[in-house]
Specification:
α8 crosses α9, α8 runs antiparallel to α13 and α10 crosses α12. The longest helix is centred in the middle third of the chain and has 27 residues. The strands form four sheets. A six-stranded mixed β-sheet has the order 2-3-4-10-7-5. The protein is globular. It has two domains: 115 residues, Uridine Diphospho-n-acetylenolpyruvylglucosamine Reductase, domain 2, CATH 3.30.43.20; 326 residues, Cytochrome p450, CATH 1.10.630. Helices cover 50% and strands 13% of the residues. It has 446 residues and is an alpha+beta fold. A hairpin with a 2-residue loop joins β8 and β9. The chain binds protoporphyrin IX containing FE. The site of protoporphyrin IX containing FE has 25 residues, from α12, α13 and α17. Protoporphyrin IX containing FE (HEM) binds next to α12, α13 and α17.
Length: 446
Amino acid sequence: MTTTVDSHKPVRLSWRESQTFSQDRIGWMIRSAAKQGVSHFQVLWFDIFFVADPDVIRELIVKRPGSLHRDPFTTNVLRRIMGNGVFIAEDEAWQRQRKLVAPAFHAMRIRAYAETMAAYTREMAGRWQDGEVRHLDRDLTQLTLRIIAKTMFNVDLVEEAERIGRLMQVLLETGEKQLDSAYPPPNWVPTATNRRQNAALRELHALIRDIIRERRASGRDEGDLLSMLVQARDEEGRPMSEAQIVDECTTLMTAGHETTAVALMWVWLMLGRHPEVAERLYAEVDAQLGRAPLTFEALAGLPYTEQVIKETLRLYPPAFSFGRTPQEDIAFEVNGRRHAFRKGASVIISTMAMHRLPEYFPDPEAFRPERWAAGAPQPPKYAYLPFGGGPRICLGNLFAMMEAQVILATMAQHARLTPEPEQGLDWDPLITLRPKGPVLMRVACR
Ligand code: HEM
């Protein structure tokens, strides 16, 4: 007979502690996970759980997805930016929207995107001068933005990429400020943060509306996501409203570029710290591709490149956590422990903290791409979750992995990048886990 241990007694945080709690969420997650798989805090009258136990995560996001919604703190902030697109929607609306946009991400379909990704990367790296120092954060954000716009909406944002990059930065900074505060004022209150955010959103939405109107007016079927949205009809044969199409497009544009750009910033920072890994990567790219433009078929010959990306996503997952809120009281038993989550609690899946636990990843702080080699022992299911899991797993996960591999290999064909001496590894969690400050890299053309 097994004895059931009632887990997680709540720790009530003082006002002072709750301040550092919201400002240093990652530090708290990492320290809590090192002590126990599930930690329970009470801040004022809120229940907050940090979960870094793969079996508990499976119960929550895979077995009971219908009983949990996204957590309201994150949702309230992200809804301002993404509207009611697939990321934010719940229940039937989410099912309908996910079904509608998913075909753009089917494995067969994304194959066709590889060449666009490679061509845009060649264009970017081709402009670099030998010996110059690049702001890699800007270059990568603009690159992934151009790729998402071309593959989803068939538009080439040459001039606009820089402007949208700046708007995105404003949205991230203001969104993070709102996340840091327990009660961000509603967006109609004219605070400095709201005014900045609303102005950036107006500009971004105007641009997206222009793209939609142009497509509607042309009547063209480009076979891309935008045409799917414009042509979609509900059961009564009604088209989607323009506002809904704007929300879906904004969702994919924002969720679909910043995360991959951030992942690649960390990849290059890791390569800068681990020259032996960088050498192996360059050797693989040279042997498999030489100077030839990358194609989808060539990706299978670049396993080490993929391992470097997976290992970076382990240590620096751009989505360092994601939240859920039970819609009813939930209780279950896992490995002899009873877990109870009250309706309305914030349940934060601490991805980054879990990725650094020695029981799942021996010598967890070490950057070792070989962990992911074929035949190497793999971590338990749901211990590695850079893209989440269960029905709400990242819609763009295959797209993002392919994109990261294509961009990394193509960049490596063109240049060696070395971090400037002052470049550190601090992070600045601006909704995603960005490296702090600009990412400055010196270019040596190959
Ligand atoms: C390295 C890049 C990326 C990372 C690390 C990442 C990570 C994630 C994570 C952790 C989630 C939340 C899962 C959950 O709450 O259970 C998510 C959701 C989502 N991601 Fe990504 N993502 C990336 C790239 C992309 C791309 C390229 C796209 C689109 C082109 C995309 C579109 C979405 C959407 C639409 C959702 C919401 C899915 C839903 O709620 O049904 N992501 N992503």
